[in-house]
């Protein structure tokens, strides 16, 4: 594909799976020879991460979806940089960027990262502004087509791709385990997720208490930071789990932590597309026990790549984890199945190729 000038926009100032995907996609496209930059929140964590990777970031304050000054500045940026594609990612930049791109005559795509429903009323036309919409899973794609009314050819499901070399199976690092305070010889049950309400760390901890109440020897690892971090730390103490739970906070070396985990857990009850953390754990051959939320079932295929349980139930999570801990052959089979699925369908290169092809179709359609 010929080199394109691509700008990604992001209004959010936080850091999580969405921002990690944006940064990974930008770096991947740059490696493929495209000219890539970002625009968005001047004080956001994505700006810091982009700068650390040597990517150009254009700071732009966006005070709301109808911020006329931001729309004018965005249009000027698109024109001055000779941009081929503007790729938006959040609500406010979706509006600002969508209108600016229309005004500038620039191709526009929007990624919908969550599986939450999009209200379908005449004033919510933000997903009708771009020429194409990317979703991270099939259920939200189907919703945008069947309920929101987008033409099927305008919506593509492109799950987040995983660096299969970075997240490759490896031996657990005994030194790292000791550094974290994990006890040798005791199984580790882990959750890797931003500490947000819908990730349901409260269920994970209730599950931990139930497993320990059954007399099981286990310890629990919570990897990630976020707005609910202090609340989760308080819950650990109030449930009397302080000696059994290790919280790492945000870590840049998640690939080193994952081999320490015998069973990975996803407790979310809503808003999930295809979570990167799940794919990362599957890539390192960790068996997953996950609640059936959003598009999780697209990758955690029950009895093949993991165990799916009903959402909102600590007891269901506990039963699934207990089953995997008690059956090493099942754990190994699920781990192999997960790694195989990621290699075949969810690699970083698969995501980049699908995105390039979508850019090509959008640009060809505009030319016609």
From TrEMBL:
Superkingdom as given in the UniProt entry: Bacteria
SUPFAM superfamilies reported for this sequence: UDP-Glycosyltransferase/glycogen phosphorylase
InterPro entries in the record: Glyco_trans_1, Glyco_trans_4-like_N
Pfam families: Glyco_transf_4, Glycos_transf_1
UniProt entry keywords in alphabetical sequence: Transferase
Organism: Desulfoferula mesophila
Domain Glycosyltransferase subfamily 4-like N-terminal: 15-166
Protein name per its UniProtKB record: Glycosyl transferase group 1
């Amino acid at each position: 594909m010929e080199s394109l000038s691509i700008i990604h926009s992001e209004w959010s100032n936080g850091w999580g799976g969405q921002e990690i995907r944006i940064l990974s996609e930008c770096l991947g496209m740059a490696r493929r020879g495209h000219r890539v930059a970002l625009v968005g929140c001047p004080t956001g964590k994505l700006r810091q991460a982009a700068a650390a990777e040597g990517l150009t970031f254009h700071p732009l304050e966006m005070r709301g979806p109808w911020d006329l000054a931001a729309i004018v500045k965005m249009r000027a940026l698109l024109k001055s940089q000779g941009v081929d594609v503007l790729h938006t990612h959040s609500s406010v930049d979706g509006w600002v960027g969508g209108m600016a791109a229309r005004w500038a005559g620039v191709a526009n795509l929007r990624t919908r990262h969550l599986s939450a429903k999009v209200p379908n009323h005449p004033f919510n036309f933000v997903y009708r502004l771009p020429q194409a919409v990317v979703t991270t899973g099939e259920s939200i794609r189907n919703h945008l087509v069947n309920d929101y009314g987008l033409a099927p050819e305008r919506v593509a499901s492109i799950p987040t791709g995983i660096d299969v070399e970075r997240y490759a199976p490896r031996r657990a690092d005994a030194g790292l385990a000791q550094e974290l305070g994990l006890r040798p010889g005791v199984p580790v049950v882990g959750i890797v997720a931003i500490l947000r309400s819908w990730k349901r760390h409260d269920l994970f901890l209730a599950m931990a208490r139930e497993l320990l109440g059954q007399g099981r020897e286990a310890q629990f690892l919570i990897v990630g930071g976020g707005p609910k971090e202090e609340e989760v730390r308080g819950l650990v103490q109030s449930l009397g789990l302080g000696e059994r739970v290790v919280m790492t906070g945000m870590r840049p070396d998640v690939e080193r932590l994952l081999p320490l985990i015998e069973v990975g857990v996803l407790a979310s009850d809503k808003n999930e597309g295809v979570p990167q953390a799940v794919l990362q754990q599957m890539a390192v051959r960790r068996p997953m026990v996950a609640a059936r939320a959003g598009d999780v079932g697209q990758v955690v295929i029950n009895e093949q790549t993991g165990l799916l349980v009903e959402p909102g139930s600590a007891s269901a999570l506990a039963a699934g984890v207990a089953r995997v801990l008690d059956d090493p052959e099942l754990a190994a089979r699920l781990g192999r199945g997960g790694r195989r699925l990621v290699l075949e369908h969810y690699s970083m290169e698969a995501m980049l190729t699908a995105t390039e092809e979508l850019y090509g179709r959008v640009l060809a359609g505009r030319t016609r």
